[in-house]
Amino acid sequence: MIAKAIDKINAEQKAKITDVKAAPEFQVGDSVKVFVKIKEGDKERVQAFAGTVIARDGANGSSATFTVRRISFGVGVEKVFPVYSPYIDKVEVERSASVRRAKLYYLRNLTGKKARLREAKDTR
Amino acid sequence: MNGLIGRKVGMTQVYNDQGRRIAVTVLEAGPCPVVQVKTPDTDGYSAVQLGFAEQKPSRLPKAEVKHFEKAGVKPCKVTKEFALDDGEVVKAGDAVTVNMFDGVKYVDVSGITKGRGFAGVFRRYRIGGGPMTHGGHSKRRIGSIGARDLPGWVEKGKRMPGHMGCVNRKARNLAVVQVRGEENLILVAGAVPGAKGAVVIIRKALKK
Lengths: 124, 208
Hints:
The structure holds 2 protein chains of 2 kinds. Chain A is mainly β. Chain A has a single domain, classed as SH3 type barrels (Roll), CATH 2.30.30.790. Chain A contains 1 helix and 5 strands, in the order H-E-E-E-E-E. Chain B is mainly β. Chain B contains 3 helices and 12 strands. Chains A and B meet through helix 1 of A and strand 1 and strand 2 of B.
């Protein structure tokens, strides 16, 4: 009963999102555009945040998150999004890269040309 | 009735109406049978005794088994008294469910905190301790406990290592996020004292 109750609630949370739309599909290293719904007063608009996915946490659970990093005006900016958030409109993959790690935290220490990722081959 | 006996199930996250994630504690609350109704005539005050969690009769004293028998309910591990609202009428044998929290915005949840055993001051009082390096000799110690001749004693209540946890604590004004009547579950925002599976008392918030 004890563990099952939590599992049920988590599954419900996940289903609430996945029933309406497919879960976003992307991999670590992908350049993505995350469209986030933003509420201003009673108006709702969609804002995009483009960058590289450098991590995905929480396996496939209901509280899984992913981290998107971009360089904005010369300053590194990272945003953590929940995968199953009702506030995420969609995630567009613009480019895939072949990476050898699950977490690309090393990109934080690199700038300019060094911070590039090798593009994935179609055969991946 | 102002409260119910329950059990802490664990914590998770849910999205609220605004689409924000909030941390919630899942509590299994009730159903609690009314074991005894106390009235001013017989007991000098009015209250109800609720039971929670079934217990084998063989594990209880005969007196307690008879006490439950009298009310016509199954023997319980935990019993607790709750005050009655004005004009509320209940009788022994009724079952109180989590639905009593329908429409309630805030609750107080009390329970016994996790026992930490004999804990040092780092953990017990968050005292910073001494330097870890540069030849520090009071790394996790409390340092000085007072002056020497004046006043010549250690002040009362001086924070020192000792037993920590395993005491009754109450988390007040926790927002009710969801009441799931069918599963006897209530979801409250934030943390609640105690370990998973520990018995907790859930009351309507006193100060909200």
